[in-house]
Amino acid sequence: MNQAIPAAAKAGSSARERVRRRSGFVQVGLAEASQRYTEGLKRCLGILLQAICTTPTETTASVYVPTDSTDAQYHLMGRGLKLSCPTSMLPASIVYHPLQWDLLAADFRFRFEIMRQAYDL
To answer: Which letter does DSSP use for residue 46 in this model?
Structure first.
C-alpha cells in the first residue's frame, strides 16, 4: 500500500522525524486528501488541515474530518476550513529503501521500550 506513515507517536523520538514514503505516495495522498475534504464538506462539520512535518521540498499534512458535532466541538472546529501549522515544523527525511525503514522502526521500538520502562508508561 502506498502511504505515508508517521514513524512514531511520541514527541521527542528521533524516529518521529522520519516519514515513510513509497513510489506513488503523492498521487495516493492527494486522492485520499481530496476524498476526505469532500466528505467534510458534505457533513458540514468542518475540516482540519494540519501540517505535520517538512523536508526541504515538501510538507506532510493530514486532513481530519470530525465524526459528529460533539467531536467537532472537542476539536474547536467551525463549519469551515481550519488550518493548523506548528510554529516549529518537525524535520523529516525521505526513506527510499525498505531495509532502512525497518532499521529506523527497530530503533524507535528499542528507544520507546526503554522510555516506557523508565517512566512506567
So the answer is: -
Best CA proximity match to 77, nearest among 87, 62, 88, 67: 67
Q: Which residues pair with 100 in a beta bridge?
A: none
* Amino acid at residue number 42: K
For 92, the grid coordinates are 523529516
Q: How many secondary structure helices (H) and strands (E) does the chain include?
A: 3, 6
DSSP secondary-structure letter at 89?
P
> CA 11, CA 108: separation in Å to the nearest integer?
12
Give the pLDDT mean for 15-44. Answer: 66
Confidence of residue 114 (pLDDT cuts 50, 70, 90): very high
Tens digits of per-residue pLDDT, 46-74?
899 888 888 888 888 888 899 999 999 99
Using alpha carbons, select from 51, 69, 49 the residue that is nearest to residue 60.
Answer: 51
**Contact in structure between 79 and 45 (CB atoms under 8 Å):** yes
- Contact at 8 Å (CB) between 46 and 69? no
